[in-house]
Structures are given as C-alpha cells and as structure tokens.
Design goal:
The protein has 561 residues and is α/β, with parallel strands linked by helices. It folds into three domains: 200 residues, Rossmann fold; 183 residues, 3-Layer(aba) Sandwich (Rossmann fold), CATH 3.40.50; 101 residues, GMP Synthetase, Chain A, domain 3, CATH 3.30.300. Helices cover 35% and strands 23% of the residues. The chain is built from 18 helices and 27 strands. It has a five-stranded mixed sheet, sandwiched between helices. A four-stranded mixed sheet has the order 2-1-11-10, with helices on both faces. Strands 18-19-21-22 form a four-stranded antiparallel sheet. Strand 5, helix 5 and strand 6 form a beta-alpha-beta unit. The longest helix has 18 residues. The chain starts with a helix and ends in a 20-residue tail after the last strand.
C-alpha cells in the first residue's frame, strides 16, 4: 500500500473540484479548485525562491482557510512544515524558528508585530498568512518570486488551471520527515516531535477505515481546535479534507456563543473536541437544571425519568446543530460523572487517546450505537482500543489489573525529537517500542484505561501510587469548583489548589467567602470516600484560572511546590 498522504490530498482536490472546501466563519469561502490553485501558486513561489524538498518552513497563526492553504502547500511540495502555536510568546517563537532551521515563516500580522527579525538571523523571509504578501525578505529570489508570482503562474498555465494540473510531490520514502511539531505540554519544555509521512498517512488511513462515512464528502465540519496542535491538525483538518468535507474555521477564540452559532450554521454530523467544552456545557447548563426540586422528583419517578432525559438529550443535540451522529473527545480525560450522564441519555460520545508523538492516534472506539466494521464499541471509562498498525504493552506484572507505564509501537510513532538525542533515547527503545509516560491498564479485549501521567504520579506515605487526576475529577464535580489541581504538600499530605467559579456563585447570590466555605465543607465530605492516603489535607483558593496548554490541559509544572 502506498503510504502517501500527499497523494490522498491531491486525489480529493480533483474529485471535489467544484465543492466547497474551506470557509472562514462569517467570512470568505473557497472551493477545492481554489485550494488546488493557491497550493500550486505557492509551489511556484517555493520553486523560484530555491526551496528544496526537506527544507523547513514555519507557520504561525490562528485557525483560518489561509492557514490551511499554506499548510497543504508546504507539505505537498515536499518541504517540512513547522506549525507553531500562536499562543507562544515572542521569545519562544524566535527560539523555535531558529531551532527548527526554518527558511521561511508564514505568520499572522498581529503576531509578527511582536517579532524581531534580527533575533531570527537565518530566516530568509516572512509572509503574511492573510494574502501571502511579504513582511520582509533577506533573499532576492524570494523578493523577485513574490513580485512576479502571478506572471509565473500565467506562464505555466497559459490557457486555464484544471484539475489535471493538480500534481504534487510524490512521497517515495514513508519515513521521510513531514513536519516538526513543538509540544506545549503540561510538564514543561517544548520538544520538536519529528513526524514522518507514514505517521500522518497511518492516522488518516485508520480513520478512513474505521469511520468511512463520517463525515461524507460535502458534509460540514467545525474546526475549533488549534491546528498547530497535532490533534486539531490531523483528526480535524487533514482528516476533513481527505474526506472531501467542507471545513469551517472560527478564526477567533471559540467561546460557547461563537461555537453554538457555528454549529447551527454548519450542522455537523461529526464533532472533534476536548473535554473542557462539553464539560462546561453539561456542568453549567444541564446539571443545575436537573438539580431543581421538580426535576429531581421526576428523575426518581419510573417512566417519567426517561421522558425528562429524552428532553435533555434533544436540547443538547440541538445545541450542537441538530444532526450530530458522533462526538469524539480527546486531548485529556473526560470527567467520569459527565461521561456517565452522557451515556445515560444515550448521547453519541466517545473518548480517544493519543499524543503528539503518535501523530496523534493511539486508541479509539466508536460511540455506542455506531455500527463498526471491526466491532470496537466504546466502553465507559476507557479511551478505546489500539488503532490499526499499532501495538500496545503495559509495563506491569498484571496489565489488566495493576497499572503500569504504557508502551506503543507501529506506523504512528515519531522518528524522535529534533536535535535532542537525549530526550529521544529517554522514550525510544532500540526495539522500536516508545514509552508514552502514561500509566494505565489494558483489558483482555484490548480496551485502554488511563490512570494518569507517570510524571504527575505522587508517591504516598507508604509507597502507594497516587494519581492526582483521579482525585481532581471528583473535586471538579463539587458545586462552584471551576477547576482544580492536587499537588504533593510533603510529609505524606496532599493539597488541593482550587479555582472557584465565582460567576456561577454570583448568579446564586453567594459571596467569595461563602463559596470557599461551601467548597471546604464539601472537600471534608468527599475525603471519607477516598483512600486514606489520597485524602486532601489542605485547600488553597486561586485568584486566577490555571495557565493552560493549547489543548486546555493545565501546565502542572508551574504549580508544584
């Protein structure tokens, strides 16, 4: 089988020629033929600039149709894409452009304003993502190529540009480098993950096989996750294009109001998201309604409770556009109470498992009710089964019952970390197995159950393994808790750092002191349900929400004592 993701993109552009491909929400749209035309134009720019396959080109901006064009143009030319998160601070961006050896940078105007080209001495030029005009150039070939780009295009295609003119770079070596993705993890320093073409192809091929008709060609998808992060890039954008879907980009912060408006417009059948979005909707909109005295009574009345839950499900489905067939949640664990409730109302949700180093898929199973070809139906509490062309092991004497570090091997696995042999050797074993840093178990059918991160595990007073994420899920279910972190306070004690939901408290007429008093009381009530070594000894209330990664995981390393 030809492990060439570029060929799949090339083929779908030809097949979907007159169909819509990309739309900036409440802005301009582009058909697949427009996407093909712009890609080929950028190929001419690269060619006349002297860019060669294997050269690095950085890309930094908010989600947009133009961002997608630049990405596909770089990858389909055979150059190496370096997607950089637009949330990175300027000094970090300077460092990553230099570290990646990028020759050109595509960047949003508001980001470029805070950059200093003098601090990126090897960068040959920067182009504005919006219209691909030049910010600056140190390369005469680049300056000339940009000035005469329309002329070059007219010379190459004197009649007209047709679907037969869509001919991209052929990936002859599946192990060749496709992109360098700099992690922005919850445990510290960014590392450049070297992702080969085979890993992207393998991820897409797995989704095409497991979900052949979701979405179908012509269906709409809302891309709400940052595309510079591997989850949003591959599972949302590349997957959507490879299916011939119509992608909507929000181009601004995905607030609940903006998202709901986008869902009503796009009416997607498939939604790719992170836990924070669905949890906020359930905890803030659904749970409070169900706690009203009349609803509580109805939920404990036979037959009537079913009708109440059906109404809740119908309202929730309408929130997501009314045509949703499946929601895939990834990037972090889903709150167990929220997950249990969604299964109770038969909401079509499933939780996947992955990491940047696997581009990103490791585990996936279908939401309940989706009829799979390979009998992989999602079980509550798990994060799916190992995906095709991947293997999994648990470093444990009893992998089904005793948690251990998870190892994976297969086509999805990275080549290593760019210019960082020590970090590569720390996770990549000579036999090809990669240590994920995640701790969990795998049952006899292959369902994966995560307990936490190896790096975040706290050693209890008598050597017990404490996974703070499990305790945090319980704390996050307490009324007026927006988010929490459990940290080691020393001498066998655990401290909970809690950011309270003061907006909700104000709506209920409570002061900050009253909210803190209630939360402290509820922590005291929670403790007896926890193992003795996992109980909370003290609480500290935070004045600001925790700093997060782009996939909305808390940067834990900033809060350890």
């Amino acid at each position: 089988m030809k492990k060439d993701i570029v060929y799949i993109v090339e083929d779908v552009i030809r097949r979907q020629w007159d169909q819509l491909a990309l739309t900036n929400f409440n802005g301009e749209s582009m058909q697949y033929k427009g996407l093909g035309r712009k890609i080929v134009k950028l190929h001419l720019l690269f060619e006349h600039t002297g860019i060669k396959p294997g050269d690095k080109i950085a890309l930094c901006g908010k989600n947009s149709a133009q961002w997608a064009v630049a990405f596909f143009a770089i990858m389909s030319y055979g150059a190496v894409v370096v997607p950089l998160l637009h949330e990175f601070k300027p000094d970090n961006l300077h460092h990553l452009v230099n570290h990646s050896d990028s020759r050109i940078l595509f960047v949003d105007s508001h980001i470029y304003e805070n950059l200093d080209p003098e601090l990126m001495p090897n960068l040959e030029g920067a182009l504005r993502i919006d219209d691909f005009s030049l910010f600056f150039s140190r390369n005469e070939q680049l300056t000339d190529a940009r000035a005469h780009l329309n002329e070059y295009f007219g010379q190459k295609f004197p009649e007209r540009f047709t679907r037969n003119d869509v001919k991209f770079f052929e990936v002859k070596d599946p192990d060749s480098l496709a992109l360098i993705n700099y992690t922005s993890g919850s445990t510290g320093f960014s590392k450049g993950v070297m992702v080969p073409h085979r890993a992207i192809w393998s991820n897409i091929e797995a989704i095409l096989r497991i979900l052949p008709n979701l979405p179908k060609a012509g269906d709409s998808m809302v891309c709400m996750l940052p595309m510079a992060h591997m989850y949003g890039l591959v599972i949302d954008m590349i997957h959507g294009i490879c299916k011939g879907a119509h992608l909507y980009f929000l181009t601004r912060q995905p607030s609940p109001k903006v998202l709901i408006e986008a869902f009503r417009t796009a009416r997607p059948r498939l939604i790719i998201t992170v836990p924070l979005i669905i949890e906020k909707i359930i905890k803030n909109k659904v749970f409070p309604t169900l706690e009203r005295p009349m609803n509580r009574l109805l939920l404990h009345t036979p037959l009537i409770d079913k009708k109440v839950l059906e109404k809740v499900r119908a309202a929730l489905m309408e929130t997501f556009g009314g045509q949703l067939e499946m929601m895939i949640v990834g990037g972090a664990g889903l709150n167990r109470d929220v997950e249990d409730f969604l299964h109770r109302i038969n909401f079509p949700i499933t939780v996947g498992y992955g990491m940047t180093e696997c581009a990103p898929l490791i585990g996936y199973s279908h939401a309940k009710g989706i009829k799979p070809e390979d009998d992989r139906e999602f079980l509550a509490g798990s994060c799916g089964m190992i995906v095709p062309r991947m293997k999994i092991q648990v470093l444990s004497p009893d992998p089904e019952n005793i948690p251990g570090e998870i190892m994976v091997k297969g086509d999805n696995v990275m080549l290593g970390y760019y210019k960082n042999d020590a970090a590569t050797e720390a996770v990549m074993r000579p036999d090809g197995w990669m240590l994920t840093g995640d701790v969990g178990t795998v049952d006899s059918r292959g369902n994966i159950y995560l307990r936490g991160r190896n790096k975040t595990m706290i050693l209890g007073p008598n050597g017990q393994n404490i996974y703070p994420e499990e305790i945090e899920q319980k704390i996050n279910n307490i009324p007026y808790v927006a988010e929490s972190l459990v940290i080691d306070a020393g001498e066998g004690r655990l401290k909970a750092l809690i950011y309270p939901d003061l907006d909700e408290a104000r709506r209920d007429g409570l002061s900050r002191d009253q909210v803190q008093e209630r939360i402290n009381h509820d922590i005291t009530e929670l403790n007896p349900s926890l193992e003795s070594y996992s109980r909370i000894s003290s609480v500290r209330f935070m004045n600001e929400e925790f700093e997060k990664t782009p996939k909305r995981s808390i940067k834990r390393y900033l809060y350890t004592e």
